């Protein structure tokens, strides 16, 4: 058993993060798969200095690699004793709390131990607690929610007054004299409500299915009407003279465009209805499943979240108002025969106005950011000379082949890469590029060729892709191998891209304090689009995290709601347990109750603000929305000392009044206050974003030429440099890591400190003699 319990994590290769294969140990003592360390050192062949990927110790000449027999035997034993893959806990599975290293899937949970156990550890638990009444249930990740946080007892009762599950001790203290029943009794009551809700959902499903069928029939009818309008128009235009042939084509195009847009809108409505039906069915199924749950506590706790009905799609608000009437169009077309010359000047414009929709394009950066998305580069598509870094958000053309495996999606001859995410609907993203030669900022169909040498695989050189070509001195736009040079006043290194797929709009903007349009194109997209980039040698592209700012700004707006708007007019404090009375004014429940208690004798109750009277005494119900807003205000309130003062580093995401930054991110190149730092951590959980203490010198830590972190030191030129600098501007110079150079300088610093201290001691000895010589007392 001791052998079997050795953690596999101790025998993982730090390069491939998998169990060692053909293990070898290098001179510094670290071990790797032979293929992994060989691949790493192959990339260092040019420098003839080979390093350890972990401790960075260097070796020259290249060490010989021999198989580590002991490690190989241990790894082999681990493989033989390894459990089947389906025993491991995956996404959504409850993990065994006792397993060390890689966790196995839990089979049961114990309500006494408050642990979940895999099958092996469950048998040990049963053996250990044999004859003891430990309550075991199906594995659940909600064990802590079934225990009273104050008394650490099982939740067995339900407080109707406070609408929460409680333990027996709670009934004697915090909930004393409240309306309390057993969890089982309350479950029975809630189950009745559940049945009623299920019935309501089923009725809504039936109604929505009727609406769906009606809308489908209307769409089909509209398609037939549109087709009839097209046929009538064609028949009439064949009778007209050649001078109106151009007008005929224009009208047909307008009809087709209207049909396409109207059907597209209707299909969007169909999709939302189908989604609502699916949501209702899923909720109905969840309610049905909940009704059979044996655990009272789980039932009551789940009931609250499932009782709120899914959002309804309103199909009664003019559901077919966007479909046009073909009768009016036919009438206009018939009149064309009698108005030959006037038709092109007047009537065509009238018809055009009747079938044209207005497409509203975003104007400000704030407008664009509501459509922003974070993109991730697809490693499987990257050309072998493109190095992907920083969680696949940065591309650099190193002009050296990377050790990528062969893949059918990989670009073979062009230094290009696509993103994983497809573009549909309205989509906006930003990027920043650096280098001297330039980049192609592109969108492409997924069907673009990956292996060809010709135009079929180059962005902008075929009908599958569209590209903005950026260089240090010019912009141009390229599609289907037709390149158009664009007139611009200045070149921006930060570019915003906006796509409205259904409207066929592709726009490129330079981004600074304002948005400046570089170029826009109107076309028809027939497939999903994928963002892509061609990158020249010694050039990098970084995908920007614009959505973080948007999300953060919305949160800050929430936090900046004035508390004065939620003050009770009676106690002049923030509302507590808020209630709204019939006149619309709101108070703390205890405050308005106290006021009305004094009016009980006259049996007429008034509002302390507007003095409107009520009889009989109105019932008071908690205003949930107000309560939630007040609770958010309490949680998001920032104290005055959070404001950035003189000398403080400001949060880069705050709008309006800036708060003091607590951390800076070397990946995002932003500084964050505590609120925005939490949002940053939440969004990039599990991703390697390098955080440091807040600093106003972020830009000084970045190479101005390559926009990479300064990680190396050039002893030859006595300056900090980035990794790309070592391959180009500082090639063949005497270069060490910044950490190594710091150690060396630290030794010099200690010597200098020692010298200064000796001089201070000597001068302190000389001071009395000098005072005597100059007669200073």
TrEMBL record:
Coiled coil (residue ranges): 198-290
Keyword terms of this UniProt record: Coiled coil, Immunity, Innate immunity, Metal-binding, Zinc, Zinc-finger
GO cellular component terms listed in the entry, alphabetical order: cytoplasm
Biased composition (Basic and acidic residues): 761-777
Domain named B box-type: residues: 143-183, 698-738
Biological process annotations from GO: innate immune response
UniProt keyword annotation of NAD present: no
Span list, region Disordered: 755-777
Span of domain RING-type: 13-56, 568-611
The B30.2/SPRY domain, residue ranges: 355-552
A GO molecular function held by the record: zinc ion binding
PANTHER family cross-referenced by the UniProt entry: B-BOX DOMAIN CONTAINING, E3 UBIQUITIN_ISG15 LIGASE TRIM25-RELATED
Protein name in UniProt: Tripartite motif-containing protein 16-like
Native source species: Onychostoma macrolepis
């Amino acid at each position: 058993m001791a052998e079997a319990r050795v953690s596999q994590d101790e025998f993982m290769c730090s390069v491939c993060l998998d169990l060692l294969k053909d293990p070898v140990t290098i001179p510094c003592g670290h071990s790797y798969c032979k293929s992994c360390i060989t691949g790493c050192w192959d990339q260092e062949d040019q420098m003839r200095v080979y390093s350890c990927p972990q401790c960075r110790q260097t070796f020259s000449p290249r060490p010989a690699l021999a198989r580590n027999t002991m490690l190989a035997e241990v790894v082999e034993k681990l493989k033989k004793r390894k459990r089947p893959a389906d025993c491991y806990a995956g996404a959504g599975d409850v993990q065994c709390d006792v397993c060390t290293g890689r966790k196995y899937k839990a089979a049961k949970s114990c309500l006494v131990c408050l642990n979940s156990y895999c099958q092996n550890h469950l048998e040990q638990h049963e053996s250990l607690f044999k004859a003891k009444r430990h309550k075991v249930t199906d594995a659940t990740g909600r064990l802590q929610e079934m225990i009273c946080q104050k008394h650490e007892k099982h939740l067995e009762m339900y407080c109707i007054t406070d609408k929460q599950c409680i333990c027996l001790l709670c009934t004697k203290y915090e909930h004393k004299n409240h309306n309390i029943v057993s969890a089982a009794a309350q479950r029975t009551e809630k189950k009745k409500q559940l049945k009623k809700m299920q019935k309501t959902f089923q009725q809504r499903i039936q109604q929505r299915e009727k609406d769906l069928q009606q809308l489908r029939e209307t769409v089909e009818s509209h398609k037939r009407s549109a087709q009839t309008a097209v046929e009538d128009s064609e028949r009439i235009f064949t009778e007209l003279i050649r001078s109106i042939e151009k007008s005929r084509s224009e009208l047909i195009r307008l009809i087709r465009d209207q049909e396409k847009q109207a059907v597209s809108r209707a299909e969007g409505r169909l999709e939302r209805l189908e989604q609502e039906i699916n949501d209702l069915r899923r909720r109905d199924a969840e309610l049905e499943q909940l009704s059979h749950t044996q655990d009272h506590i789980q039932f009551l706790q789940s009931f609250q979240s499932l009782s709120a009905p899914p959002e309804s799609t309103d199909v009664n608000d003019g559901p077919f108002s966007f479909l046009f009437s073909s009768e009016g169009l036919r009438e206009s077309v018939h009149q064309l025969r009698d108005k030959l010359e006037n038709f092109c000047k007047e009537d065509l414009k009238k018809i055009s106005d009747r079938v044209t929709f207005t497409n509203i394009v975003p104007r400000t950066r704030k407008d664009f950011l509501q459509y922003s998305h974070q993109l991730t580069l697809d490693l499987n598509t990257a050309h072998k000379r493109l190095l992907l870094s920083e969680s696949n958000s940065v591309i650099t053309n190193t002009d050296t082949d990377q050790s990528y495996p062969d893949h059918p999606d990989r670009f073979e001859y062009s230094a290009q890469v696509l993103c994983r995410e497809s573009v549909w609907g309205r989509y906006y993203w930003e990027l920043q590029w650096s280098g001297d030669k330039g980049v192609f900022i592109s969108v492409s169909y997924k069907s673009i060729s990956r292996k060809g040498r010709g135009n079929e695989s180059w962005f902008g050189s075929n009908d599958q892709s569209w590209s903005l070509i950026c260089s240090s001195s010019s912009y141009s736009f390229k599609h289907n191998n037709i390149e158009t040079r664009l007139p611009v006043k200045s070149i921006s290194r930060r570019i915003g891209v906006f796509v409205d797929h259904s409207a066929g709009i592709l726009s490129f903007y330079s981004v600074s304090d304002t948005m400046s349009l570089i170029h826009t194109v109107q076309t028809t997209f027939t497939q999903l689009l994928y963002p892509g980039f061609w990158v020249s040698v010694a050039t990098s592209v970084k995908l920007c995290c614009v959505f973080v700012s948007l999300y953060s700004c919305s949160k800050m707006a929430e936090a900046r709601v004035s508390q004065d708007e939620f003050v009770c007019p009676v106690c002049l404090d923030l509302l507590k347990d808020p209630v709204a009375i019939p006149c619309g004014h709101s108070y703390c429940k205890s405050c308005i109750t106290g006021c009305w208690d004094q009016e009980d004798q006259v049996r007429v109750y008034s509002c302390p603000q507007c003095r409107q009277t009520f009889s009989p005494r109105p019932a008071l119900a908690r205003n949930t929305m107000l309560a939630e807003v007040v609770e958010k205000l309490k949680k998001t309130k920032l104290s005055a000392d959070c404001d950035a003062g003189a000398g403080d580093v400001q949060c880069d995401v705050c709008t309006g009044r800036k708060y003091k930054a607590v951390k800076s991110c070397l990946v995002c190149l932003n500084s964050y206050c505590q609120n925005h730092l939490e949002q940053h951590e939440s969004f990039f959980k599990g991703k390697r974003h390098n955080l440091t203490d807040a600093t106003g010198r972020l830009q000084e830590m970045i190479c101005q030429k390559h926009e990479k972190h300064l990680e190396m030191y050039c002893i030859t030129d006595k300056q900090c440099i980035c990794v790309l600098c070592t391959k180009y501007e500082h090639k063949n110079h005497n270069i060490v890591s910044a950490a190594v150079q710091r150690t060396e300088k630290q030794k010099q610093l200690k010597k200098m400190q020692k010298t200064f201290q000796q001089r201070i001691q000597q001068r302190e000895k000389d001071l009395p003699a000098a005072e005597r010589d100059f007669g200073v007392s």
